[in-house]
Amino acid sequence: MSRIKFILLWLCAFCITNLSFGQQDTKPAKCTNPGGGILVGGFFDVSPGVGCLNFQTNSGTAIVANAKDLTGGTNFKDLGYIFNFKDGDNIIFQPTLETSKTFTQPGTYWILQGMNINGAAYITCNSFELVQTEVPDLDVSSCGTNEITLTFKKSAANDKHSGYRILWGDGSQEFLSGITPNNFPFTKTHTYSGTPSGQPLIVGRYAKGCESTPLPFQFNVNNKPKISELEGLTGGTSNKITMIEGSDGKAYTIEQKPKNGNWNDTGMKLTRNIGETFKTTTLTGFNATTEYCFRLKTTDGCNNAILSNEVCTIIPKATVTSPKEVKIDWNSPDPTVTRYSVGYSESPTGANPNTGAPVTPTGTTYLFNALDCKKKYDFKVTGFVGTTPNQVVIKSPTILVDPAVSAKLAAKTIGTVSVLNSSTIKFSIYEAGNKADNYIFYRSEGGPNNFVQIKQSTENFYDDKSVEPAKQQYCYKVEYQDECGNTSEPSPAFCSIFLTSTRPNTLNWTQYVIPAPGTFPVDYYVETIDESGNINTVNSTGDTELGVKIQIEKLLESPTTNGEAKFRIRGVQKVKIDIGGGTIIDFPFEVYSNEYIFITPAQLYVPTAFSPNADGFNEVFEIKGRFIAEFNLEVYDRWGNIIFESKRLDDGWKGTASDGVTPAPAGNYGFKVFGLDPAGQKFEKVGSVTLIR
Length: 693
Prior knowledge:
It is a single chain. By secondary structure, the chain is mainly β. The chain folds into six domains: 3-132, Immunoglobulin-like, CATH 2.60.40.10; 138-216, Immunoglobulin-like (Sandwich), CATH 2.60.40; 225-312, Immunoglobulins (Immunoglobulin-like); 316-401, Sandwich (Immunoglobulin-like); 502-600, Immunoglobulin-like (Sandwich), CATH 2.60.40; 603-691, Immunoglobulin-like. The longest helix is centred in the N-terminal third of the chain and has 13 residues, at 3-15. 28% of the residues are buried.
């Protein structure tokens, strides 16, 4: 047996239990001072000197070759190797030659070579390093529309890298070399001309030749997210949002606002995962009658806002206009809507669906004239913005239409209240189509504040004969019912023109108003009525007050006047009326007020003296006057005795004593004139008259 084999086997007998399977970074001490008569010398190669653990392999194999003696030759024998030699290990060789070893844990592994050269034992050591690569530790941010910034962090993983290879995904790659731990952190910016055609990757490089597993990073040229569909649910209290596009894996904040209001964060986010073409979520807690708008928001690496398109809700409203017809109205959610469609079906069965009723692009009204009041219906409005493939779809919540009970019929908005005479007012309703089945009339006295029901009728007018139109204003409302028993909303108040006078020689009256759309200003015509009933228009105005002194005086000039100046107001208001066939006319609606009478008090003209001396002048004490309905004259002597009485204006005192024959002596005589004017007001005048002889 050779000496080296003897030594090795002898040592093995004592040390085999000291073998271990770790590794160490520093060269074992026995590689330079083996002891026991063993010398240091010889050469060999380890291939490769470095192994890499990465995505491609989970192990590394060290292969030894090219063993040489002290002079670089091959004059040796009994060649052997110990792999993973460490401090504390003994020099023990396997019985058979082993020239390779596979390792799975990172670290430095020492390989000891032994050989017999001319009867002496020689050893030498080489190392094999297995490097555990780590992916780069970085942040990815983008700024603007096409710029990306990689931030390389200061970390244990990055401190081991000596460089990087970046494949930007647009056909270009970039090498960063000479990196030391002192370089961290640092940034690298790249500008794209468009969306990368390939997956951007970054590889960490090591000084000993290893490369890390390629790390993919995301960059989509800051693609904006898009709301492709907005659908109202649960009657409008919930809204379902569908998002497309944007960046994979990025969380987008959902913002909402009332239309024309301020944006608010809903606290909810939408994230479209890799491989998903869309993502949906439903938001709750909305007011069903309020228009809301939604958008998605995030920020780029420069904290600039990245916003999606803005999409607003459609809020439908149903108005049952007849037992057969419903009008669906809705708001315009976007000025660029290209078209709408209205879908409907029977509720709740969904029977007889129609999902494509067309509506003109700019129209926001749809009439359905085939209602059956024994059924219920669900309607939904869909708006389309743009064209496919970039079309945005907005769906309203479903609205329930129940012709029998669910909706109030629209109120009547055109009506007139006209005074026919001193005890009758006519309230009339204008209707373009057929009459309703039943009408319910209400009245309020003294203004539009306290309405009480006064009559039900199958006629669309009411002659109210329990009124005093000269004393106060009367207002009316009406409701109507269709054949299914549906009741309309109450109409607005329609009021009489109440004519009065709050100042001398001035007329004042309340307004005549038809509260319907398409009305014109009211024209008021002031009319006079003489004692024969003749009517004349004396003035016109748009105001509700007019001075009429001249008109009063003119009326009183009539020799047959009884002291009354009678007026009334004729109000005329034009309203746009659709008479069918697309023809609209300006139709004048005319009403009359009560009559108002200015009463002129009795006018008396009393002489202060008279001379009954047969000369033909001032022979009689005679009272002249106008506007006198009842007349009395009494003449007194100096003792207060009545010496003359008359009940006629044309019957005067001729200056006689109480016998009516004997001339009364000259002097002063007292008199009293009294009576009633045409309005029933008393008048009286007391004085004295001088009788001259």
